[in-house]
Write a structure and sequence with these properties.
This protein is mostly beta strands and 103 residues long. It is built from no helices and 7 strands. The protein has a single domain, classed as Immunoglobulins (Immunoglobulin-like, Sandwich).
């Protein structure tokens, strides 16, 4: 299983800035190893986020996103103590969900 995501949600007035650092190798499928064999593609394909269980963000990604991607977005109507959950799924069927509480 992949390492946990680092999620921070900071509230200012009625907006939360959510920052996410995902741990993922993100191989494009175009690089070769030392023996000249192509390294298979392995990348995040879907990212979703919820605010207190309500969907607030969705994205479809491909192989061009960098290793250990960083994501930031703003959610209106948030307050300290609210829960933010982020989920990613990759092209090999693996997924990871982590949660943070807004401060």
């Amino acid at each position: 299983m992949a390492d946990p995501m680092r999620i921070r949600a900071a509230v200012a007035s009625d907006k939360a800035t959510v920052r996410v650092l995902m741990s993922h190798e993100m191989e494009t499928g175009q690089r070769k190893d030392a023996a000249g064999k192509t390294i298979p593609a392995w990348h995040i394909t879907e990212v979703t986020a919820t605010h207190n269980g309500k969907p607030v963000f969705a994205a479809e990604w491909g192989g061009s996103v960098s290793k250990n991607p960083f994501l930031q977005f703003v959610v209106k109507g948030a307050k300290a103590g609210d829960k933010f959950s982020v989920t990613w799924k990759d092209n090999k069927g693996e997924s990871r969900t982590d949660e943070a509480t807004a401060t």
